[in-house]
Amino acid sequence: MVNNRGIKSGILSSRKVVAEGIFGAVAGGVAVLLVAVFTAVALIVSDEQFFGVAVALVVAHIPVMIIEAVVTGSVVAFLVKVKPELIGIRR
């Protein structure tokens, strides 16, 4: 499909979907990372004995970060394809 400027809009739209999906994945993963790090810092500040627990907390959240990134990225990519105005993107 070629638009009025002679550019294949399918290629551009698929790149946009991928870019928005990657941005969503990064945002989801970073959100979980920040929660884990802030909680770990709060534990360490409260008492030095919680250092081991804080490290375990951050390590235990690594799989959660990965899953959150995949799910969030997939949802954002889907919404960009189906109904981009839901996330503030104009067609």
Spell out the key features of this protein:
91 residues; mainly alpha; 3 helices; 0% strand; elongated
Textual characterization of the structure:
This protein has three helices and no strands. It is an all-alpha fold and 91 residues long. It has one domain. Helix 1 runs antiparallel to helix 2 (51-60) and helix 1 (9-46) packs antiparallel against helix 3. The radius of gyration is 19 Å and the shape is elongated. It starts with 8 loop residues before the first helix and ends in a 9-residue tail after the last helix. The model has no long low-confidence stretch (mean pLDDT 87).
Compact summary:
This protein has 91 residues and is mainly alpha-helical. The protein is built from three helices and no strands. The longest helix has 38 residues.
Q: How confident overall, as mean pLDDT?
A: 87
Q: How would you sum up the major sheet?
A: none
Total count of strands: 0
> What percent of residues are in strands?
under 5%
**Helical segment tally?**
3
Any idea what the shape is? elongated
Q: What string gives the helices and strands in order?
A: HHH
Structural class from helices and strands?
A: mainly alpha
Domains (count): 1
Could you tell me how far the N terminus lies from the C terminus, measured between alpha carbons in angstroms? 15 Å
Low-confidence stretches: none
Radius of gyration: 19 Å
Estimate percent helicity.
Answer: over 70%
Write the topology of this structure.
Blueprint: H1 9-46, H2 51-60, H3 62-82
Helix pairs in contact: 1-2, 1-3
